């Protein structure tokens, strides 16, 4: 089974042309990727007035949707999901690519709780990850989370890229490494 993402092509419409440009960029990137935590690209074919893209179908919906429906996740589940997200991001970064739009709506959950970043329309090949967007206030870190979880989040939010650890290094943080093989997380 696969999912179909489609852009209507109207040759004289600037918005349509921009969407098509982004989608072609996403196709070029996805066609080069193969990782268990990255949505698999199956193909595309430009039609007269549309460009359908066929991707791996991930049936569980997005993390955003699951949080809206069921409320907050347990810390072991957060660890599990985070480890998988980092694995996918480390793979991308190893290919000199950054996603640039990581958010709950762009993280899909499969039927066996496998996690896959999706929507690579904003992804770019880069020489280095530049910086976290300027913001006066950091998001609040929930005090009920473990010390390891709080430490992990603080590292992720460091603004200076020269001291912010990459995904490959974050995979070795105690918050991630303390994840036990649990069937229910």
Description:
This protein is an alpha+beta fold and 185 residues long. The chain has two domains: 55 residues, Phosphorylase Kinase, domain 1 (2-Layer Sandwich); 115 residues, Transferase(Phosphotransferase), domain 1 (Orthogonal Bundle). The protein is 34% helix and 15% strand. The chain is elongated. About 7% of the residues have low confidence. Belongs to the protein kinase superfamily. STE Ser/Thr protein kinase family. MAP kinase kinase kinase subfamily.
Short description:
The chain is of the alpha+beta class. The protein contains 6 helices and 7 strands.
Helix content: 25-40%
Give unreliable regions as ranges: 122-134
Count of helix runs: 6
How many domains? The number is 2
CATH class of the largest domain: Mainly Alpha
At the fourth CATH level, what is the homologous superfamily of the largest domain? Transferase(Phosphotransferase) domain 1
Mean pLDDT: 80
The value of Rg in angstroms is 18 Å
The H/E string reads EHEEHHEEEEHHH
Helix/strand/pairing category: alpha+beta
Shape: elongated
Query: Largest beta sheet, briefly?
Result: 3 strands, antiparallel
Strand order, largest beta sheet = 1-3-2
CATH architecture of the largest domain: Orthogonal Bundle
First-to-last CA distance = 26 Å
Beta-strand content: 15-25%
- The count of DSSP E runs of length 2 or more, i.e. the number of strands, is 7
The CATH topology of the largest domain corresponds to Transferase(Phosphotransferase), domain 1
């Amino acid at each position: 089974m696969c999912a179909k993402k489609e852009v209507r092509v109207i040759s004289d419409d600037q918005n349509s042309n921009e969407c098509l440009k982004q989608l072609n960029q996403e196709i070029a990137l996805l066609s080069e990727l193969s990782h268990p935590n990255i949505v698999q690209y199956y193909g595309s074919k430009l039609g007269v007035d549309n460009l359908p893209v066929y991707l791996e179908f991930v049936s569980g919906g997005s993390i955003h949707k699951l949080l809206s429906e069921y409320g907050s996740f347990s810390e072991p589940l957060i660890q599990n999901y985070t480890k998988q997200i980092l694995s996918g991001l480390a793979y991308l970064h190893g290919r000199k690519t950054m996603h640039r739009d990581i958010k709950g709506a762009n993280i899909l959950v499969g039927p066996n709780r496998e996690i896959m970043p999706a929507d690579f329309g904003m992804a770019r090949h880069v020489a280095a990850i530049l910086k976290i967007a300027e913001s006066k206030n950091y998001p609040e870190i929930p005090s009920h989370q473990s010390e390891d979880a709080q430490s992990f989040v603080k590292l992720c939010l460091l603004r200076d890229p020269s001291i912010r650890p990459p995904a490959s290094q974050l995979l070795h943080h105690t918050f991630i490494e303390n994840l036990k093989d649990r069937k229910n997380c």
